[in-house]
Amino acid sequence: MKRPLFTFGNWLIEITREFGKCMLLFMDALHYLFTRPFRVHNTLVQLEFIGIKSMNIIVFSGFFTGMVLALNGYHVFRMLNIESLVGGTVAIALVREMGPVLAAIMVIARAGSAIAAELGTMKITEQVDALVTMSINPVQYLVSPRIFAGFTMMPILATVFSITGLIGSYFIGVIVLGINEGSFMANIRDIVELEDFFDGLIKSFVFGLLFSLISCYYGFYASGGAEGVGKAVNKAVVVGCVTIIVSDYFLSALMI
Predict the structure, then answer these.
(1) What residues make up the domain containing 42?
(2) Looking at residue 2, what is its pLDDT?
C-alpha cells in the first residue's frame, strides 16, 4: 500500500519541480524580452523558422483535413437530407477547434522538436556556458526570441490552416460531391460568427506560448549527452501535444 503512494508522491514532486522551473524560465524570458540589448536578428530568424518554414506543412495538412471533414460530414448529413450544412459545420470545427489544435501539433512536430534538439545540443556541448563566459545572457539570446516567435506566429499559422481547410472542404463538397454552392457558402456565413474566429485566435496565442516554452524548457535543461538530447526532444513533443489537448478543453469550457 505504501509503495504506490510513495511512487505517486515522487511523481507529484517531480511534476511540481519541473513546473516551477518552467515558470521561472518563462518569467526570465519575458523579462529579457523587454530588456536591452534587443535580439532583433535572433527574433527575425525564429519568426522565419517557426512561421514561414512551417507554411508548407500547414497548408498541406489543412487542405486534407478540410477534405476529410467534408467527406465524412457529407455521408452523415446525407442520411438526414441536410448536405448543405457540411460547409457550416466544417467551418465552425476548423475555426474553433481543428485549426488551432492541429496547427499547433504540426508546429510542435516540426519546429518544437527542432528547438528542443538545437538548445539541447548547445547545452550538452557547453555552447550555453560559452555565452555566459562572453557576458551574453543565454535566456535572452536563445529563449526569449523563440517564445516570442511561437506566440506571434501560431495565430497566423492557425488561420492559414483554417482557410486552406475551408478550401479543401469546398473542393470536396461542391466540386466533387455536388453540394449546391450557394447553400454551402450561405451556411458558412450563417453558422460561423466573428466570436468563433476570435476564440480560435485566443487559443492559438495560448498554444503558441505553450509549445515554444515547453520546447525551450526541455532543450535548455537537457543533460546526459546525446541520449539526453533525444529524451529532451521526445519529452518536448509528447508533453507539448498533451498540454495543447488538455488546455484546449479548458479554454473551450471557458469560451462556451
Answers:
(1) 2-255
(2) 63
